[in-house]
What does this fold into?
Amino acid sequence: MTKTILVGIDGSRLDLIKKWAGEGSLPNMKKIIETGCSGDLRSILPGPHTAPAWVTFATGKNPGKHGISYMLMRKEDYELKIVSSHDVKAKALWEYLSDAGEFSCVLNVPMTYPPKPINGIIVTSWGTPALESDYTYPSGLKEELKQFDFSLKPEYDRTEESTKAIYDLTISKIKATEWLMEKNNWNLFVSVFFETEEMHHLYSSFLDKEHHYYNQDYEKLIKDFYGVIDEFFGRLLEKYSNINIIIISDHGFCAPSHYIYLNNILEKNSLFFKSTSLGTKKRGFYEKTIWALGETYQRMPGIMKGAARRVIPKFFKERLRDTKMVDADWSRTKAYCPAKIGIIHLNVKGREPEGIVDPGDYERVRDEIIQTLRNDSVLKGKIKGIWKREDIFSGPYTDEMPDIILSPEEKYEFTYTTEEGMICEPKQGNIIGCHTMNGVIMAHGPDIATGEIKNAELIDIVPTVLHMHGLAVPSDIDGRVLHDLFKKESIMNKRKPLIIPQLEEDKIISAVDSIDI
It folds into this structure.
């Protein structure tokens, strides 16, 4: 019976892990790198961003097939709603294994709330509104997790109290992971640590010695935090030495430099016009309110939550899950950015409630916008590329993706904010790290090769694990089996992937007969 362990360390950077491992601070990650394999793991556009990245990890499909391009999804009007697992339109890895009769434990994977029934257990993560919600499957597991002082996501900032909260939550998740590993007879165990993402957001600006914000004390703080996870890896290597372990991150991080105010650049080119009915200070109010109220509710003492629950659930449903990210004069606006990543929607007549771009002119207008952005003096040298959605997405939900996608150069970050006079401004004040396309893959185990793995992508994890378990790969999965991950003599390397037609994906069958020795 094949067993696989998948661990996510959200936002991690391989260069830092190697540096700290080389200094002796991460002995178990050093062992994994030296006696297993490692390399960069390319993330996914748009963004990269946590929501589409982890859904791509889970499904092995691009956003045009799974339907998620950001943490917020456009409704029929200009309102946006926070996405959930109900909006994911493709099967997850653990659902394929469940169909094949295999048991999966899935902990803390973003975008799994509310949990879907599987042959196994699910504990949800980022995107869960509160601990009072049904965030586990089966639902009774929630009570058992209370022994670990389990929580979802602390408020984080660069204070001693916040750092302790992140440490405590990580330790509680490690304890819950080890307890569930021991308690269950599983085929696949997935556990993601979102806390590494939070630490990188807080401290990425202070980790690189060439950066003017470099801080030796902050580097030690995050290095010591990785030490907690490294100790967990050490216990995995010792107890599960006969099991293949794969460690990944959904994207990387870098020290930020500038915000690019995309709507203001569109305004500069007469493509976007601010609303005259809403003051500058109110712009972005709804988004800030969503997260502030949500975090406030999670931090309430139990006695206060009991009273709040009589009011908040309806408020969450009707208000906290709906937001207007940008206000514009829609009678003149041709294009707008609704998010903190490089995505642009056209204001199309018949699609948007006050659309002005005629569907017959859609292609011409979109081409003109792309050319305008490519020629914009502010954007030159600050973006890697601009694409139409169909250039990088495929599948039945491509038409639901943003019309135009932009990818920034490292250290630049897009924002939808429409503050007056802001075009491309240095990040100041509470400096927060920004995402990069290169995440991490490290692997160790009886079938795992030694050395560097190249050209691996986040989208490759599902077909690779299905192949490892001797299961067929549905033909509409976009990733490939990472054969370079395996030893040459391993049966996983000798076995040819068995691809089945998309329409047969519910009939997961054994690929054992396809072995070519």
